[in-house]
Every structure is written in C-alpha cells, then in structure tokens.
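fold description:
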Amino acid sequence: MKLFKDKKIAITLSLFLLTAIIFGIYYYNFIGKPLEKIFLNSIFGLSLILIVFLILLFKKTIKERWKEILLLSLFMFLLEIIFVIENKIVVTYLFFISISFFIYYINLMSLFLKNKLKDIYFGFLFFFIPIYLIIQDIYCFIFNDFLSVAEIVVIKEGAEFASGVIHFKFIYLVYLFLGILSFIIYLKIKQKKAIQIKGINFIILFLLYFLVQFNAQYPVKEARLYTSDHYLYQTVYNHQRFISRYGINQYLFRDLTKSIGGLFKSKNQYRSEIIKYFNDHPKEHETNEYSGIFKDKNLIFIMAESFDNLAINEELTPYIFNLMETGLNFTNYHVPVYPRTTCDTEIIYNTGIIPSINDGPTCYTYNRNSYYHSLANLFNNKEYLTKAFHSNDKEFYTRNLVYEGLGYQEFYGQIELNLSNIEKRYDETFYEKAKDKITKGDKFLSYIITLSGHSPYNETHLAVQKHYEKVEAYFKSINKSPPEEIKSYIASQIELDLFVKALMEDLETKDLIDNTVIIITTDHYPYTINKNTYKKYTGFTENYEKSNAPLVIWSKDIQPQEIDLVFQSFDLLPTLINLFGLEADYRYYLGNDIFSKHYEPLVLYKDYSWYDGKNYVSFGNKIKGTSSNKYINKQQSKVDNYYDISEKILRNNFFKNN
C-alpha cells in the first residue's frame, strides 16, 4: 500500500501497534497492578509515539525554528527548577519526565502559529508565567499551600487579612527579569514558518491524541487508589505533592482544565450510590453515661479564630483557663485544616461531612446546598431559636447563603450588629454589641465565629497593639523570650479571653448560667505563623501534631474532667447529638459519638493522611506506628470511602431540605 511506503507513517504505525499490544496485556491484568505503572506506560508511552511522529512529520519547521524552541524550553525549565527550590519542594523522577513533556507540548503549540498570533503566544508565556509564580509563592508563604483557580472566588477574603504578612523576595525580580529578557531575545530570533496539517497526518495525530486522553481517564474509573500518581494527576487533591511530581506549569494546566470541567458536572447524580453506602454502613448507637446530660439546655458554641493551645495560660487567658479547669477538657482533640480553612471547619462542625477537596471552596461551589441533618436543624426540631454570629460581613465566604442552608433562623454580621471596621476587630466589643441577641429565646443555640485571633500577628493588628505589653511583661517575668510573631499571636487571643469573661458575667446577670452549655474550640491552628518560627517554637512538623487543638465543653453542673480520647472535629456533632439527646441518624455523619462503646479513633486530613492515636499514615507510608499492613490497608480503604461519599453528597445536595 502507498500508505506504508511513507517511512514516517510506517514507523509511527508500527510503534503504535507494538504499544497497543503491550497496553492490552496491562489492562487484561489490571486488577492488583500498580496504577503508577499503567499510568506511566499509558500516558508517556503514547505521548512518546506522538512526539516521534510529529518530529518526523515537521522536521523542516523544527529545523528552521530551533532557536525559538530552545529559548522557550530553557525559560520554562529554569522557572520550574527555581520555583521548586525556592519553595523547598522535593521532586521525584516523574517531575523531570513531566516537565519535559509539558515543555514539548508548549513548543508544539507554538509551531502552529505565525506572525502576530505567535508574538502574542510567546509574550503571554514570558510575562504571565513569572507573574503566576510570584502569586503562587506569596500565597504559599501565607497559607502553606498553593492557589487553585477554583479558589479565586475567595481571594478577596484572603487579601483582607494579608496586610503585614506579604514579604517581597529578590526571586520575584529574577522571575520578571527572565521573562523580559526571553521576550527580547525572541523578538530578535523569531521565524515566520508554521506547521500545516492535512490528510492522513491529521487523522493519525488526532488518533494518538485521543488515545493519550483515554489512557489518562480510564484507570481512575476502575479504582480509587489515592496513593497513586494517576489519582493525584486526575484530582489534584494535594497541590504540593502534584507539583513535586508534575511541576508548577503542569499544575496550572491541570488546575485550569479541572476547574473548567467542574462547571459542567451534573449536580443531580450519585443518589443511588449514596443510599447504598449508608445502607451498607449502619452505625450502632446505644445510650451511654453521657446521653442526654445537657437535654433542653441552651448551647453557645464559640468557634474561635486560630485558637490554639499556644494561647492557653492561667495568667494571660484566665477565663478560658478556668473553663477548662472546671469543665470537660479534651486534651487529644484534633481540628484538621481543610482547603478553605475557616469556612470548611464551619461545614464540618455543622454537618459532619468532609468539605469539598476537588470542586473548589464549599462555601462558594455549594453555597446553595442545604442540610436537614445539620446542627441547627436538629435544634430547630426541638423548638430552639437558632442563631449565628460573626463580627465581619456576613457576605464574607457567602455565609449569608451558607448559614441559610445550614438551617439557622437568624444570622447577624457586622452591619446587623452595628460594628464599625475598628470595633469588629475586638472580640470583647463584638460580644457587647451582640449579647442580647446571643441570649435571646426561651431555648437557644448561638453559633459564634470570632475574629480577633486572625493574622497578621504583628504591630498592624489592633488587638495585638492593645495586649502586646501584657504578653511582653509576662514573658519577661518568667525569663523567656519567644519570637515576636508568637507573642503577637498570644496577644491577639487575649481578646478572646475578654469575650469569654463578658459572656460569663452576662449569663450570671441574666440568670442563664445554670441552664447554658458553652463550647469553646477552634477553626484551625495558626498556620499563618511563619513555618520555620512555628516549627522551632513548638517542635511540630506533622499534621497530627499541628492539629491537636483546644476543646472545652462547660456546664455549671458538670463534674470537671480531663478526657484524653483521640478524636476530631468530625466527631463533635454526633457527640453533641448524644449529649443533648437530639434525634438523628448517626449514619449520616462521618464522625461518631466519642462516648459510644463502638467508637474508634480516626482523624482525617485534607491530603488523605490519617491518624488514629497510634499510627500516622501519609500517602500509604507509616510515619508513626507499628500496626500491621492489613490494618493500615483496611483503614486506608475506609478513609478513601469517606472522601468519595462526602464528595458525592455535596455534588448531589443529598441532604437538601424538602
């Protein structure tokens, strides 16, 4: 046949046939085989054939424009290397393979362009990529994570508290210099010739590209092994790990395509799978010694901004300290940090399910969802008046929509409480303005989100200015000198202590103290403290260490007790259901009543790592613990199912109010 007389086509088709046979063997033996092996052979094997075909096909154009190719390749490679070094990301061999392929495809796209379109393309890359890297570096410095396109909707919220935290780095000038220099060189060496494809060449190119995409999708539909690089590539569930495997530019590409693809996902699916999951995973719950001990009492739930054990001190925070001494003090409680930190923890406390990991911020992507099994709705069913409070705008994180879906009858923000932009920074003032609304109702649930503990922890923070001298004097009196950022952080939390003081005095005055339960806990540890400062001061490096958080449940008639059970924020809601004697189906909560005889510790983190009090497992590797591999694999499967079912619940709006 004339077709096979063309050497480049014959070579390509022969390679394709050989690879197809190999892939067929892999898929036939798929079950039990490592996904990474299939992933690498599928994606990179087919991509290699595509590269060989295109080089053979377009060798004349490539020969003419080799200087442009070399320039763009060096530019992209240098930025990748500088970025991972600057952010201390440990890369794998897959990183170099991935960025090589990505650079190849970036160059390939340029070969199809000529004249002004090509100038725009190169100009965009040379100027946009450096700016993008600067933004990512700043974001990582503040949040210890990398920005996703899906989270741009919360940039405004993050920027409000970024003043005083952002620091200029010399490397930013290097990024910009490389971009400008590369564009100047490009203008001097650019060529006009471009690729044109037609006939059989176009068909082969399309077929190869289709197979690359098919192989990128197929295995993930057959298994959900989150430890695999394939699953990581598809979901981008862990940003730093993704960059360590595929590079920052590949991260940008996948993040964009995943975010755009998310716009077209059906919200009305998975229902039968969710029902089957709940039917297959029943939860037994019998009454225990703590069942109903707070029945018909009021509840004031304080989620304190960035509150951490670092701030608890008999002299500096005496009122919180006293509550812990006279209430139920949980010393092994954990609050994992999820992608959108505060608003994600609010979802956890109020619904008991995992917030969105892959679809963007829950408080935006799913702010129209509702939850008939939520904390507020369970109290609504008992004829409580349910209210939520925050001293910032209630549109912040779209809480005006989220809390309606959570079932709260009233929500009071900055405007409703008549707080000025200065007043809202002080938790004590916040309570004074809100106190009559907080305690309103014959029976009430008041959910409160404080603000004073928010970063930045420096002299620009109003609450820090107010209390810093007290903290400084205390540490001088005990001959200690913590880092300035630590002292500023503690100073910010003194304002929370004054909030608690005002609350206790107000409850006494209104004769509500005997019939009110107070919960004080946190939304997350103070992760915006400089990583090195935090690590040096606390010695904490792993998730299970950082997430150990304060929790006190106080009632005047409770017997003081220190409880060292390992549990997490997901367990708090089902535990409250038991304590207040509420009516609920325990299957619908990821966590469990910690006082149940069936309780087994399990703390979940956003990167799918987990901790059970004895073992800490990250990406399938035991960082701590000696349990058997059989036990580890069993727990791993359970964790994977939790993430999967929570994602489906959110997408389906499964718990929507009728």
Notes: Residues 2-260 form one domain. The two ends are 67 Å apart (CA to CA). The longest strand covers residues 298-304. DSSP finds 26 helices and 15 strands in the chain.
